[in-house]
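In response to reviewer comment 3 from the previous cycle, which asked for concrete evidence that the modeling workflow produces usable outputs, we include below a single protein chain processed end to end. The sequence was submitted unchanged, and the resulting structure tokens are shown without manual editing.
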Amino acid sequence: MQPIRFSVVAGPRQRPDRNERASDAWRNYMNDVIRADRLGFDSAFIGEHHFCFAQGNSSPFVFLAEAAARTEQIRVGTSVICLPFHNPLRVAEDVAAIDIVSNGRFDFGVGVGSQYEEFETFGIDSAERFGRTWEAIELIDRCLHSGEEAFDHDGKYFQFPNIRWIIPPVQERVPIWWGGFGPQGVTRAAKHGYNLIATDVTGSYARTLGELGDKPENRYVGFSTEVSIASTREEAFNAIADPVWFTNDVYGTRRQLDGTWPGEEARVTVEQLRKANETGEQIAMFTPIADTVDGVIERMLPMIRGEMGFMNHIGIEFRPCGTENADVELSMNLFAHEVMPVLREEFNKHYADLAQQVEVPRG
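The workflow returned the following structure tokens.
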């Protein structure tokens, strides 16, 4: 069984409505990764988007190369690289290079992309996103792990003659993570033995692994949650209220891949988010856990115990774009020193107890 992992999940997203520059966001998020390394978080994941509000994380490999060079223990990874927009051979070379820079601390998270602007500007048909992504993943996997020094690739979307692979990574196998919830994608990810940057909402991941004689506990499964911690619930929510509202507003009202726009009902207000934080109801894509140390522990224990589906990867976003540096630092410190040890201990105890319960008595 894999040990539980706590990750900082983010991306250097600037707030244009606050005149924040991309360079400001880059430095803030870089400082968060360095702080996470010092505080004992297990990994830091950075996303990718282009031509939209998340402009600052259009070059995640460059960001992670700097992060790897400035940290010592923490693993670094992508959550996720939007593969339809990339040459898969260049991605494979960058993955190997960052694994070398980090001395084997890289995790490769992939996804199909979700922004209309990206497909429009790059000139990629969004209907091809799954086919392009999976062909790219399998080619990248072959480059990194097959041991072949020279081969050809003649696929539906990519044709590469005489590939000569000369840059092996440090890790024997660079962990690959699938970023998606749909049954077709997670089933395919399970068949390849990939981790899941999502919760297994359909059960397809666990079911497929079971059919292969495996189980999710041998992989990593989990998604991310916005967390803010302060001395009172009100202070914790106020610290993150506007940033979470902004993120929900941008994601909720973005243009759909078919070119249509959502209606006004897609918007949520700060007061709706405040009420949801009180009740624990999930009302939007990003509904934060904002509370005291004890409150955050209480609300996260069901995740740890598998009451919301099996999870052994807990991703935390402490900096939805626009969060003040002092508030981010306070939340990260409190989580690392007072929340994470409790959750880690409970995870170990819970699954040790379960293992004892299913152990067959010896005659």
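Residues 98 and 244 are 31 Å apart (CA to CA). We consider this sufficient to address the reviewer's concern, and the full set will be provided in the supplementary archive.
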